[in-house]
Amino acid sequence: QRAIMQAIPKLKGFKTLHAKAEVVYTDRLNGLSGKVDNFSLYEAGLISTPYTKVKVITRGELTAKLDVNLQFASKTAVAAIKKAGGSFTKAPIPSRETSEDSRKGSK
């Protein structure tokens, strides 16, 4: 007889614990205006949740003047944002607000 650990197929590969950054392309930013952060991208439907890492990658042409406050951007995306008259600043990942009432209720 075979041991049960030998009989069960094994999963191959490695699964990382770190979540991958969601990608937003520069041509999708043209529909936005003013300050762009995780919450404005979430409201526009470009990312699934505002509490995740976001990276801007170059695709197409950026014509809107934007002040981008996100976690990551490629070098060419930063150059495209500055060429359009905007600015890029690196921002931390937004954290979820925890209320005092929810902590008291869980005790």
Mean pLDDT: 87
State the separation between the terminal residues, measured CA to CA.
50 Å
What kind of sheet is the major sheet?
3 strands, parallel
What topology, given as strand order, has the largest sheet? 1-3-5
SS-based class: alpha/beta
Q: What is the chain-wise order of helices and strands? A: HEEHEEEHEH
Radius of gyration of CA atoms, rounded to a whole number: 20 Å
Oligomer: single chain
> How many alpha or pi helices?
4
The dominant shape is elongated
What is the beta-strand fraction? 15-25%
Helicity, in percent? 10-25%
Number of strands: 6
Uncertain residue ranges: none
Structural write-up:
- By secondary structure, the chain is an alpha/beta fold.
- The protein is 24% helix and 21% strand.
- The chain has four helices and six strands, in the order H-E-E-H-E-E-E-H-E-H.
